[in-house]
# Entry
Amino acid sequence: MIIRSTDQIANVIRNAVAFNVKNWLGGEMNSDSLIQSVQDFFAVLEQRKIDYVLAGGIAILHYVEGRNTQDLDLLMAVSALEKLPELKIATQDMYFVRGIYNELQIDILLTKNPLFDKVHREYSKIERFLDRKIPLATVEGLLLLKLYALPSLYRQGNFARVGIYENDIATLFHDYQPDVASLLRELSNFVNESDLAEIRGVITDIQKRIKRFKNESGE
# Structure
């Protein structure tokens, strides 16, 4: 399903939460209320004219099918975050904030990070959904965010998230054939040489997988 409305956003999150076995343990969970929380949250963003860009799994689902996610990811400045006092902060560091709005998990990528700021300013667009307009990261913006994060995930040994990110990248590469040289030039301004070399290797492996898939599927 390609996401075209905030109702669909809500249903994706509700279903992901409802079918996650971890959420069945340790108390009650009203997944249906998430639908209203999503609608309320986007309404608040719009009413208060809060400057944000939708990223992460939900943004990816606007471009491709087959993704699953339990939260919303937003690019946002600290000054914009301060306009959301209802957001209960669970964790925060220099560039990331995780908060809860009612039962909805919100992950904020703060534009204090130079790459996050770049994607927010230059790799986003206003996309018309059925019920409202939403600022959305472009395919190139999503790829920059995913590729930028991978070296850190490798160092953390987070195999599960690495797999999700690499699959997101591969799917976007397959469907949209982005300009790889342009992506690498942009990333070179924000990562060191070692990380850039690792990112190049990931892209090369993904391109080989896509080529093999196309050859074997007759695409």
Remarks:
- The chain has two domains: 6-137, 141-217.
